[in-house]
Fold this sequence. Notes:
Blueprint: E1 3-11, E2 31-36, H1 47-51, E3 52-53, E4 56-57, H2 60-71, E5 75-86, H3 87-98, H4 109-117, E6 121-124
Amino acid sequence: MEGRYVFRARIRLEPDHEAVSIEPSSAETTVTLFREAPEPGTEGWRFFRDTLWRGEASDDEYVRGLASEWLGAPVESASFRELQVDAAYFEALKAAIADDLEAFNADTVDEVLSKYLGSSVRVRSDDSG
Length: 129
């Protein structure tokens, strides 16, 4: 069972030495971050509820801070791309949500998925990565 959150981030390069300067000070490309999604029902599994709204970062500054922490580099912008899961993870996620609908202030699992993840869930087949 596997799940991971995918974010894109634009990082800012900062030299460690005063004698070095960088032009431009931002990376020209973005990086893709893959963060393991905790197993449904375990500590931290509600990350999507606390961080996302309709498939977007609910608090840009907070998500930039998380990405900066994960990368160990200053992040100028960060955005959520998708939750990638295998079929087993997706079924476990839906079951955990169903067992805890009150925490999501929702009546159905589909409502929770739409409310927090929008259409940003990709269920991978066993042979895709």
